[in-house]
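Render this sequence as a predicted structure.
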Amino acid sequence: PAPPSVEEDDTNGEPDEGAPAVETGSEVAGRWDLTHEAESSGKASGYRITLQQDGNRVYGRGRKYTENGALLPAEQRTPIRVDGHIEGQYLVLNFTEQGAWGSNSGTIRWLISPGGLQGRFASDARDGSGTSVARGVR
């Protein structure tokens, strides 16, 4: 399914209206659709996050919206928070996702490129590591 529309986006009033999608360089502030695909299970988790940038520091929050391509009901859209920094051509974020089961945390390391962000994630969840890709939302 298509990513959630702005009307469906419930990132708790974050300043994302009109936030720019990233085209090039190290400016990463804006709204992103990200997908983590776990190596062990092939499970794909989709998130919509809003990043803010202050110099090299990057932080933000969002929600999980899809699992294996299926849109999750509102009550299953778990919140995620990220905080990290830019290291040269890379964005490194620590994340915490809070769900009914408790929380899981980990790290995302993305290469910043004109086409978006791509790299890997590692977490303390059962599906502990895999690929991670994020595309700017217009």
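Summary. The two ends are 17 Å apart (CA to CA). The first strand starts at residue 30 and ends at 38.
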